[in-house]
């Protein structure tokens, strides 16, 4: 027993010493990180002399992030004009500035390369669409887009031809179909709020009866508590609760 006590104390001392050393290392590492962050905020010039790179959008990044195949600048300018950069020939197109973009973005009317080389008129004019059904050819300009973008609700062709002659969606029995073919839940029909983009869910609705302690909006489809009338806050969808209110005395 007399021997075990010093041994245990020695073990505890070594363990505490090891923990103190680890804490010291972590503290130094944290100090270095904070120092780097502080130095980065001092307004040091964004030049190669300080191992910095200035993006086209004036964002400043570390020079080491240049040409690392990641969009650190958020405008791809750190990945332009990179030497020895190879693109996946089967899936990507190499822009004139060295940037790699998806071949699906070729001739889609958008400047994905940032130098417009993916929209080169000569290339796009002579580029045939994929005949296996993977591409859709726009009516004008002969641009090709992915066939999955056809009738998806977004105008991907500059002429909007990818959204022409699309089948109208069929609403579920529990849904109401707006005049613009949009589907909403039937519970939103005639609830006093415009849920359809064309407001057709609030058209042709019967007048709604309000309680004695409620105010009926001019639309006749919405009731609000009487205290909300003339409280300088539009609670009715049509704002009728704030119309014809007496002028408030100026302080």
UniProtKB/TrEMBL annotation:
Membrane topology value: Single-pass type I membrane protein
One Pfam family here: Ldl_recept_a
InterPro entries: LDL_receptor-like_sf, LDLR-related, LDLR_class-A_CS, LDrepeatLR_classA_rpt
Superkingdom, natural source: Eukaryota
Stretches the record annotates as Disordered: 232-251
GO biological process assignments: endocytosis
Keyword Transmembrane helix carried by entry: yes
Protein name: Uncharacterized protein
Organism (species): Ciona intestinalis (Transparent sea squirt)
Lineage: Eukaryota, Metazoa, Chordata, Tunicata, Ascidiacea
């Amino acid at each position: 027993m007399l021997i075990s006590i010093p041994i245990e104390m020695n073990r505890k001392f070594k363990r505490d010493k090891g923990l103190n050393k680890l804490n010291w290392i972590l503290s130094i590492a944290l100090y270095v990180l904070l120092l780097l962050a502080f130095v980065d905020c001092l307004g040091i010039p964004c030049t190669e002399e300080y191992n910095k790179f200035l993006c086209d959008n004036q964002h400043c990044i570390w020079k080491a992030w240049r040409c690392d195949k990641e969009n650190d600048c958020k405008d791809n300018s750190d990945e332009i004009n990179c030497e020895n950069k190879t693109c996946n020939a089967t899936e990507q197109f190499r822009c004139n500035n060295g940037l790699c973009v998806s071949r699906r973005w070729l001739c889609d009317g958008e400047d994905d390369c940032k130098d417009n080389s993916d929209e080169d008129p000569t290339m796009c004019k002579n580029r045939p669409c994929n005949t296996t059904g993977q591409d859709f050819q726009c009516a004008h300009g002969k641009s090709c887009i992915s066939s999955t973008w056809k009738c998806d609700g977004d105008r991907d062709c500059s002429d909007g031809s990818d959204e022409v002659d699309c089948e109208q969606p069929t609403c579920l029995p529990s849904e109401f179909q707006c005049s613009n073919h949009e589907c909403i839940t039937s519970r939103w029909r005639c609830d006093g709020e415009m849920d359809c983009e064309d407001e057709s869910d609030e058209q042709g609705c019967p007048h709604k009866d309000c309680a004695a302690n409620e105010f009926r909006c001019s639309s006749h489809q919405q009731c609000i508590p009487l205290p909300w009338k003339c409280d300088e806050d539009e609670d009715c969808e049509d704002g009728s609760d704030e119309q014809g209110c007496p002028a408030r005395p100026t302080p």
